[in-house]
Amino acid sequence: MKRMKAVKAKVNRSKLYPVDEACKLVCETASTKFDETVDVAVNLGVDPKKADQNVRGSVSLPHGLGKTIRVAVFAKGAKAEEAKAAGADIVGADDLVASIQAGDLNFDSVVATPDMMAQVGKVGKLLGPRGLMPSPKVGTVTLEVGETVRSIKSGRAEFRVDKAGILHASVGKASFGGEKIKDNLMALFGAIQRAKPSTSKGVYIQKVSMSLTMGPGVPVEPAELRG
């Protein structure tokens, strides 16, 4: 309790911090023995109930995510070999479906070739709620499996808006420090801006907050991120 009180005391919840200050401050709220992840929550001016306003995408971060990403790939033949050569952790087809149905979901991202989507659909109810369902919007349904696997492994952030209109993403680790977190944050918001639905009216990026895994939220001035 004392630890959390001391950490919370560092953050003025009624202040909107400039991006530079917010990125530095969020890293300073680290208080655990492990290297905490820096997460971002963004309130978007969209209606997720409308299919054309369901914001989703991905972006390669300049400094990566600071963690090992396990990638599963649905592919056969030459494309399966391409995925393995690129460093995919799990590659399969019907056997991968069976493995997932048995409860083995020991991966962070899923890639599939277009011809494998019928098999992927068999485990959609298991992958979907975990945000693991491959999607052309994110670039994870593709014939370029090797390139995609390498991109994800090097630190590609995926983002999607939830039912409440809030988008969640990670931008690195506390150990990165303020400057690297800012670089990653700006790359993320560039992608979020590019993903803005044409039907979204009014203010698109409304509220932004950053936090560590075990830390308090740091309110960020959204105006700097709307460019």
Detailed description of the structure:
The chain is an alpha+beta fold. Helices cover 31% and strands 22% of the residues. It has helices at 2-8, 19-28, 77-85, 94-101, 117-121, 124-127, 145-155, 178-194, and strands at residues 37-44, 56-60, 71-74, 90-92, 109-112, 156-161, 166-173, 205-212, 218-220. A six-stranded antiparallel β-sheet has the order 2-6-7-1-8-9. A three-stranded parallel β-sheet has the order 4-3-5, with helices on both faces. The longest helix is centred in the C-terminal third of the chain and has 17 residues, at 178-194. The protein starts with a helix and ends in a 7-residue tail after the last strand. The model has no long low-confidence stretch (mean pLDDT 92).
| Biggest beta sheet summary | 6 strands, antiparallel
Q: What fraction, in percent, of the residue positions are helical?
A: 25-40%
**Classification by helices and strands:** alpha+beta
Mass-distribution shape: globular
**Radius of gyration based on Cα positions:** 19 Å
Strand order of the largest sheet: 2-6-7-1-8-9
Low-confidence stretches: none
Give the termini separation. Answer: 39 Å
Beta-strand residue fraction: 15-25%
The helix-strand sequence is: HHEEEHEHEHHHEEHEE
Q: Number of helix segments?
A: 8
Number of strands: 9
User: What is the typical, i.e. mean, pLDDT?
Assistant: 92
